[in-house]
């Protein structure tokens, strides 16, 4: 049990530091980032709790490097604990109060490698959204002029070339210029996605822990990165069991129990819906392949049996659940995945 707890509320230009010792708040002061870094160097090792936010991983890494026990805590929990109006001082105090709750769950931090992988993934997702939005906009605007074009990105770009070269379609010079710019933007967005895909694949090759996840059924480069980011941190906030990780990601049924009665519900909506949907999409691709042929491994036999009883969608969610648990065991125990073949 730490005698001193430091609650830190991070902002872009100022950092609020609340020091709690001997059941009393010793100080609650504002510092600049440079002053806080100097304080980390000169202060004795203490428990420092940061509210999880955009800069919390960086400062957690710096605090750990200086010998402190640094942890992250949920901003939602801090908000629920805060008693008075939202100010930096009250937030820093609420961080301390939240950390003192019994059996409080801290959030695991990300390493620099994980942060970089996550940045590549998010840039790729943004490029895909930009590409798809441009494509839909171009198709819709041309349809208003009774010009029907294909939905595929590559075919659409080729069709625009034909439209721009057609002198008999009565399109104005200004509209042709605007359409040409949109075509260039779409082409650039398509190239961006390809570059991000290449960055992802090369990054995986540089991360052995991430690379070995590719051996799991339904796990491609994107899901390998997803699982490595979500599970690949042996930190204080890491899940104790694989089922805890599955529940957090949202591939287990929701539970509502009261009065000794246990009620298991459906797979509900959760905050990290993108990760869950990508895992289930990967699992569904496996389901579609397994139903077309005989089972080769014990997992495929289990999956085919589940498909017959509950259908493709339920089987895909169950496989995604198993994927998360398998990945958790591989990353925490340093094991390799090898499918168990059926006896001949």
UniProtKB/TrEMBL annotation:
It comes from the Bacteria. InterPro entries: Transp_IS110-like_N, Transpos_IS110, Transposase_20. Residues 6-145 form the Transposase IS110-like N-terminal domain. One of its GO terms (biological process) is DNA transposition. Residues 210-290 form the Transposase IS116/IS110/IS902 C-terminal domain. GO terms for molecular function: DNA binding; transposase activity. It holds the Pfam family DEDD_Tnp_IS110. PANTHER family: PUTATIVE TRANSPOSASE FOR IS117-RELATED (PTHR33055:SF3), TRANSPOSASE FOR INSERTION SEQUENCE ELEMENT IS1111A (PTHR33055). NCBIfam families: transpos_IS110. This is IS110 family transposase. It comes from Colwellia ponticola.
């Amino acid at each position: 049990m730490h005698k001193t707890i430091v609650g830190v509320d991070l902002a872009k230009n100022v950092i609020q530091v609340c020091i709690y010792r001997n059941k009393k708040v010793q100080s609650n002061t504002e510092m600049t980032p440079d002053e806080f870094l100097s304080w980390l160097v000169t202060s004795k090792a203490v428990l420092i709790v940061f509210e999880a936010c955009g800069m919390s991983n960086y400062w957690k890494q710096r605090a750990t490097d200086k010998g402190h026990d640094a942890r992250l805590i949920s901003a939602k929990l801090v908000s629920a604990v805060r008693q008075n109006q939202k100010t930096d001082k009250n937030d820093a105090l609420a961080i301390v109060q939240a950390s003192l709750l019994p059996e409080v769950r801290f959030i695991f931090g990300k390493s620099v490698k994980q942060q970089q992988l996550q940045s590549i993934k998010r840039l790729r997702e943004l490029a895909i959204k930009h590409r798809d939005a441009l494509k839909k906009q171009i198709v819709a605007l041309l349809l208003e002029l009774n010009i029907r074009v294909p939905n595929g990105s590559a075919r659409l770009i080729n069709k625009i070339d034909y439209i721009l070269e057609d002198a008999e379609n009565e399109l104005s010079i200004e509209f042709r210029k605007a359409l040409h710019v949109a075509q260039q933007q779409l082409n650039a967005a398509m190239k961006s996605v390809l570059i991000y895909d290449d960055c992802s694949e090369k990054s995986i090759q540089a991360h052995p822990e991430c690379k070995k996840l590719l051996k799991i059924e339904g796990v491609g480069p994107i899901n390998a990165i997803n699982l490595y980011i979500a599970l690949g941190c042996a930190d204080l906030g890491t899940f104790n069991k694989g089922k805890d990780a599955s529940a957090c990601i949202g591939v287990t049924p929701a539970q509502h129990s009261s009065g000794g009665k246990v009620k298991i519900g459906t797979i509900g909506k959760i905050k990290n819906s993108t990760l869950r949907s990508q895992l289930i999409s990967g699992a569904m691709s496996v389901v579609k392949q397994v139903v077309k042929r005989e089972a080769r491994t014990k997992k495929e036999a289990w999956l085919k049996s589940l498909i017959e009883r509950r259908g493709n969608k339920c089987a895909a969610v169950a496989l995604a659940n198993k994927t998360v648990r398998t990945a958790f065991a591989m990353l925490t125990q340093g094991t390799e995945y090898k499918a168990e073949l059926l006896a001949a």
